[in-house]
Amino acid sequence: MDNKHEILELLRAVADGTATPEDALLELKRSPFEDLGYAKVDFHRSVRQGAAEVLYGASKTAEQILGIARAMGERGCRNILITRMDAEKAAIVSAGVELEYHPEARLGIAFPGDRPALGSIVVCTGGTSDMPVAEEAALTAEAMGNHVTRLYDVGVAGLHRLLSSLDVLMRARCVVAVAGMEGALASVVGGLVDCPVVAVPTSVGYGASFGGLSALLAMLNSCASGCSVVNIDNGFGAGYLASMINQMEGLKAD
């Protein structure tokens, strides 16, 4: 089985007599992973964590990405995220499987399918230069079934731009704040909202920003409560965490 919902349906079928325990056991015994030689594809990731395995594309060949994606697709996985994949690799992969590719974020979604748009996540950036990282976060969250609102170029150099969207921010279940330079956006947002803030430092900035280290340290030392920090340029990690927060809040609301 490839996700928790399918397993739950199988167990319900056993309970109401439409499936035998033996049939259920046979289905569950299907290998939880497949060894492709260069990768052991984890088919039970969605059972444990609620989302399918994510492919990190930067250090893989296009052929390896394609092989893993095909193996997952054959087991019914959909909306498979492939991060840090350049356009050249994407062209090769798209020739072998259905692929939705977003070049700015360098992110692909193999076997794209229906996905809900639950709750409310806001992804905001300090500047336009932070958009590639922000898009990685936003697209990740959307692929995982969340409603995402983008607020781009609302940094502290012109605070009125952020304040004009207070109503959107205050309705969010989670805010992803993406900023380089001095990384002040996360602290400002954290002081305005009553939901968790996921801060993403970016490598945008001049020499003394040290490739994002300045923003990272500023965000780690934020005086705003409820602000967590992911690694430099880690839009995927932020989108994934925001999805977990948003959907947990949704379960509470339900």
From TrEMBL:
Transmembrane segments: none
SMART domains linked to this entry: AIRC
One matching Pfam family: AIRC
InterPro entries found in the cross-reference section: P2CMN_synthase_LarB, PurE_dom
Chain ranges of the PurE domain: 119-251
NCBIfam families: LarB
Name the record gives this protein: Nickel pincer cofactor biosynthesis protein LarB
Organism: Intestinimonas massiliensis
Gene: larB
